[in-house]
Amino acid sequence: MIMFLLVPNVFITAILLFAGMIMPALSYAGGIVLNQTRIIYPLNQKQSNITVRNTSELERYMIQSWVEDASGGKNRDFILTPPLFVSNPGDENALRLMFLGGTLPTDRESLYRLTVKAIPAVNKDEVKERNVLMLATAIRIKLFVRPDGLLPPVEKAPSELNFSRNGSEITVSNPTPYYITMVKITVNGKVVSKNVMVPPMGHETFPSPTHTSVLTYKVINDHGGMSNELTGEIK
Fold first, then answer.
1. Res 16: pLDDT
2. Looking at 94, 123, 146, which one is the last position of a domain?
3. Are residues 132 and 170 in the same domain?
4. pTM here?
């Protein structure tokens, strides 16, 4: 958690980030709501719109948005308009996301992260001569750039995962061109990992204290919802 403290003539800013949030349909930060928890951006698409809604009946917010690369570094492959605006109570605003170009793989997805920060408006007269503690909150969601013509179809990708054991760990290999987020990974009825994102043509590992040949899991789909339970064989 990051906070900002308002005192006379002093303004210290910080952010509370909800990274990798998995929620059924919406992403929240204070009274600010996004209409999606992840963005699938077709590589040949000119733009994508994200809806930002202020659900508060009283609070105004300054909204600031930006795109980072997968490691959290600054990135100029995308532009967001407007990058900064005021959201009044009940407002619904559209953020326009545009890819500016750049060299990206055409045989697999690329990962970015979109952050939307909500800073509560401050009445200077009300906080004058007083110490006021306030929180700026932010939503961070994944942004997947998807080239055309990837195979297999995305809905079939989760069943392509392969599992192998190495001592007390299980390795999951992803031969598909998609990022696959596994959740509720269960071995012998026990959840061994809550959330694992496996990169395209890559692998990840997670602990498994019990030896068995089968595990179950769910994945997050393009709409941010969870799939039905899937079964994997550990080889």
1. 39
2. 146
3. no
4. 0.83
Using pLDDT thresholds of 50, 70 and 90, give the confidence band for residue 53: very high
User: Are 94 and 169 within one domain?
Assistant: no
Q: How far apart are CA 60 and CA 121, in angstroms?
A: 5
Cα-based distances in Å from 169 to 159, 189, 196, 205: 20, 17, 13, 6
Is the model more confident about 57 or about 210? 57
Judge whether 117 and 63 are in contact, CB under 8 Å.
yes
CA separation for the pair 220, 215 (Å, rounded): 17
Looking at 126, 146, 166, the residue that finishes a domain is 146
37, 224 in Cβ contact below 8 A? yes
